[in-house]
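Re: weekly structure request thread

Next one in the queue (189 aa):
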Amino acid sequence: MRGIGRAAWTTLSLFTAAALLHTTVAQAQAVKLGYVDSQRILAEFKEAQDAQKKLDDVIAQWQQERQQLQKQLQDMQEQYQKQSLLLSEERKREREQEMQQLYTRLMEYDNQKFGAQGEVYQKQAELFEPVFQKIRDAIAKIGKQGGFAYIFDIASNAVLYKADDQPDLTDQVLAELNKGVTTSGRSTR
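Done, posted below.
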């Protein structure tokens, strides 16, 4: 009886392993993967282009204001150099203090606009968050409609391997985002 038990156990183990293997293979075949290229989406999506242009315009204005402050400081330094021999010690100290104050103002301006917590990052978030939300919504819609288990972003280097037969969904996401947008950029939604 012991031999029969062992044979039955072996048969049952083999049957269970085969069933698990079949289930695992069937599940693996059912998982549908896709990827998008977020850099391409941002480059080709009209609303992202518009947001980038607005951000570039704001940055250009701030850089121009910074250049004006820098020029003002440079002019003040040149004038000080030319007149330093003629100025009294008290007047020299006053001018040096004025230059130091302007330099401090310039550094504060840089930090306020372009620093780690600067307005440029706040403006970028303000302009791009609605764009990112639309992109996320379009990807989710395509993912649900297409039955994808996962959609990876190839631009973020999050994918270490991509089989050649996996679909690039970037065109579908762009088409979804551009539905109702005319070539002039006016929405028809």
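The chain has two domains: 1-30, 33-177. Helices lie at 2-30, 38-44, 46-83, 89-114, 119-146, 170-177.
Next request, please.
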